[in-house]
Specification:
By secondary structure, the chain is an all-beta fold. The chain has 2 domains: 43 residues, no CATH class; 101 residues, Immunoglobulins (Immunoglobulin-like), CATH 2.60.40.10. The protein has 1 helix and 12 strands; from the N terminus they run H-E-E-E-E-E-E-E-E-E-E-E-E. The protein has a 5-stranded mixed beta sheet, with no helix packed on it. A 3-stranded antiparallel beta sheet has the order 4-6-10, with no helix packed on it. The protein has a two-stranded antiparallel ribbon with strand order 1-2. The longest helix is centred in the N-terminal third of the chain and has 4 residues.
């Protein structure tokens, strides 16, 4: 059997324009296909559950939470920079951590995995920006939703 759709008859609105979308909301969409005489040929239901990115949780037990890079300044290819993201939560585990920076229009991956800290050397920062090197730190849940923290360092 061959199927075709006349897209000029479709009138789809964006879901977020209909109602405010919040984490945990469940949406069900029913799609019906009818022939030219209006007889139903096919029907299917799609269910969507809205996901949210990981969040930072501050607790008394974990004083040193968030994403940090130390030291804040160092020497290219000499200094060990310690990068960490601690205290992040999402019910959709496991969490993944991706630490990157941009160098000559390429994205360099420092680490991408389930460990929230790493020690790495860094290349020279941008001399035009007082040797600034911007690190992009992402905390990613099991469904790929993520939070991003940008941290500046100086690498001379």
């Amino acid at each position: 059997m061959r199927s075709s759709v006349n897209t000029t008859q479709l009138n789809l609105q964006r879901l977020d324009s209909l109602i405010p979308i919040k984490e945990g909301q469940k949406f069900q969409i029913k799609v019906k296909a009818t022939d030219q005489n209006g007889r139903e040929q096919e029907q299917i239901h799609y269910t969507f559950l809205i996901n949210a990115p990981p969040i930072l949780v501050q607790t008394e037990q974990l004083q040193d939470t968030g994403c940090k890079v130390w030291p804040r300044e160092g020497s290219a290819i000499i200094t060990d920079f310690h990068i960490s993201c601690l205290g992040w939560f999402d019910k959709d585990t496991p969490l993944r951590y991706a630490f990157t920076y941009t160098f000559s229009s390429s994205t360099i991956i420092i680490q991408d995995g389930n460990v929230g800290n790493v020690t790495s050397k860094l290349p020279l920062g941008d001399p035009a920006k007082d040797y600034e090197r911007m690190l992009e730190l992402q905390i990613i849940d099991a469904f790929g939703e993520f939070s991003t923290v940008f941290v500046k360092t100086k690498v001379r």
